[in-house]
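Work Package 4 report. The design task specified in the project plan requires that, given a folded chain encoded as structure tokens, an amino acid be chosen for each position. We show below one input record used in the internal validation round.
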């Protein structure tokens, strides 16, 4: 059996493919395992809890894991070590989530691919490998276009009393927001601050009828193009292709931003897992 994973910072989507081509795939979801916030032992424990009933780990012969935060051999090994513990007979392959996005969006064709979910990532792809990447710099320094960036805008304006009353009430009810010191504690002292920031993107979607939220989303995507996309050489030669929940749920605003910056709009997908299944099945058939 072959196991594929698309691992974001918030959640990880898995698909188990049986050796029999006619067998339907098994999909399940676990927490996201960004190795900047997780160690191997914690990933092992979480994944063992998250496996669906009936999945026999020792029958998995190969794991292809594409994940957020896998930016160096050391970070890749944090995830790979956990996967080897859970699936002891499997060949384990760990790569960055950006390669998954490029393969899902472009197959073996060259082009531009991006991720706009909890965090941001983007690249130029030559059909086999990533050839150029403008660094997103993470939620502290960048992540323009992502849920963390949008959440940062909303949270900043909430603390300064600048969000509409209905949205402010929803932020209080959904996140239990207290005074400034409590919010700063969530950001600087408690685990997974990137998830905390990105969680406000859902409220922006629920309150998107508010002009304030429309403007915040437009500002988020405009920053993404100005700070990242336009710094790719000859970026207007490429169509704009993207995976990720933030890009997908606000795809009309994202497409409008791409058009303003002279890029034709290609594929905007919520997640890459189905396209990755097709990619790996085609590769196995060759």
């Amino acid at each position: 059996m072959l196991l594929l994973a698309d691992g974001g910072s918030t959640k990880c989507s898995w698909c188990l493919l049986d050796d029999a081509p006619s067998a339907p795939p098994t999909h399940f979801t676990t927490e996201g395992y960004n190795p900047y916030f997780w160690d191997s032992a914690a990933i092992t424990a979480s994944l063992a809890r998250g496996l669906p009933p009936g999945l026999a780990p020792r029958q998995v012969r190969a794991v292809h894991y594409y994940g957020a935060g896998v930016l160096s051999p050391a970070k890749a090994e944090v995830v790979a070590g956990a996967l080897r513990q859970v699936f002891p007979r499997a060949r384990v392959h760990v790569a960055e989530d950006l390669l998954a996005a490029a393969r899902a969006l472009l197959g073996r064709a060259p082009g531009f691919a991006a991720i706009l979910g909890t965090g941001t990532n983007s690249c130029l792809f030559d059909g086999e490998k990533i050839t150029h990447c403008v660094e997103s710099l993470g939620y502290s320094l960048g992540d323009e276009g992502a849920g963390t960036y949008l959440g940062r805008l909303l949270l900043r304006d909430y603390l300064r009393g600048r969000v509409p009353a209905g949205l402010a009430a929803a932020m209080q009810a959904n996140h239990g927001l207290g005074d400034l010191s409590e919010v700063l504690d969530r950001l600087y002292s408690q685990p997974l601050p990137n998830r905390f920031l990105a969680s406000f993107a859902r409220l922006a979607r629920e309150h998107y009828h508010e002009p304030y939220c429309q403007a915040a989303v437009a500002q988020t995507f405009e920053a993404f193009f100005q700070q990242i996309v336009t710094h790719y050489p000859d970026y207007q030669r490429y169509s704009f292709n993207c995976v990720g929940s933030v890009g997908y749920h606000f795809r009309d605003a994202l497409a409008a931003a791409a058009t303003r910056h002279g890029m034709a709009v290609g594929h905007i997908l919520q997640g890459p897992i189905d396209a990755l299944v097709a990619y790996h099945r085609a590769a196995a058939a060759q």
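The radius of gyration is 19 Å. Validation will be extended to a larger panel in the next phase.
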